[in-house]
């Protein structure tokens, strides 16, 4: 397993990490993802550790805390061998302080997560959404106190816009608070919006990307093909409305390119899609999920080899879309290459 620095921090994380959204699954979304109990989760953790995958990502909102509880049980007795990443800020109840990133909410959320995980520290806490109602200084000062108390090692965010990340980093520098070193983002061959603003920001500010849904919300599994109906057992029948939309033509264009690369390499479509992400700037770790050992082992096969430059170019071309304003005009101007980050 390849290990990479997480942003500008000294922490090294595996190129692949495991997403525990399938642990203890319940409800219309997480129940469709999977519902591994502690015994099943422990076996998946065993396989991950054997392969060098030691970062496990979850969130308090995943099945209302059940994912954290199952993950905690699965890593019991080997806490020092794993890195635990969790997230908070999304609603965990109907009360006025059951959502957001206020001091009250963050302190309680961290204490609750520690109990569910059965640990006394969290390696990486990420804010699951930007809280526009709470002053950023309040958020950062609270995270600073939690880091100083030894309850958090590193902090990051998820699904923030560029200005929200940059303003937070600027205030962290001004007051000497911990900087965000990670940004958990949606990024895939059918969802490359991350490249327009967040990737250049990550390169400039030392914020590493933890990629969620690298298979485009389940669309790049190799089971969806041009001219064929959605497989009867596909989870997309129940979950498509929860995730990022994808235009059919883009999807089929990418699937065609993935299948061509799969034939050339002898790898699977998901392995090709994940390996492409691992070649992208700022990507520290790609979060893979699995309900079964077979799915996990297949996803683990995305590392240990690399696509050729020609194969990457073909995938780039198949997945390319016109960037939103104000990014697209400058791509047409001579000399833009020297102003942009590599490989964007």
Secondary-structure topology with pairs:
Layout: E1 3-5, E2 12-14, E3 16-19, H1 27-33, H2 38-50, E4 55-57, H3 66-74, E5 83-88, H4 103-117, E6 122-127, H5 136-148, E7 152-158, H6 162-175, E8 180-186, H7 198-205, E9 208-212, H8 236-239, H9 248-265, H10 269-278, E10 283-288, H11 293-300, H12 309-319
Parallel strand pairs: 3-4, 3-10, 4-5, 5-6, 6-7, 7-8, 8-9, 9-10
Antiparallel strand pairs: 1-2
Helix pairs in contact: 2-3, 2-11, 3-4, 9-10, 9-12
Can I get a quick summary?
By secondary structure, the chain is an alpha/beta fold. The protein is 38% helix and 15% strand.
Can you tell me about this structure?
It is a single chain. This protein is α/β, with parallel strands linked by helices. The protein has one domain: TIM Barrel (Alpha-Beta Barrel), CATH 3.20.20.100. It contains twelve helices and ten strands. It has helices at 27-33, 38-50, 66-74, 103-117, 136-148, 162-175, 198-205, 236-239, 248-265, 269-278, 293-300, 309-319; strands spanning 3-5, 12-14, 16-19, 55-57, 83-88, 122-127, 152-158, 180-186, 208-212, 283-288. The strands form two sheets. The protein has an eight-stranded parallel β-barrel with strand order 3-4-5-6-7-8-9-10, surrounded by six helices. The chain has a two-stranded antiparallel ribbon with strand order 1-2. Helix 9 runs antiparallel to helix 12. It is globular, with a radius of gyration of 20 Å. The protein starts with a strand and ends in a 25-residue tail after the last helix. The mean pLDDT is 90. Keywords: Oxidoreductase. Residues 16-318 form the NADP-dependent oxidoreductase domain. InterPro entries: AKR, AKR_Detox_Biosynth, NAD(P)_OxRdtase_dom_sf, NADP_OxRdtase_dom. It holds the Pfam family Aldo_ket_red. GO terms for molecular function: oxidoreductase activity.
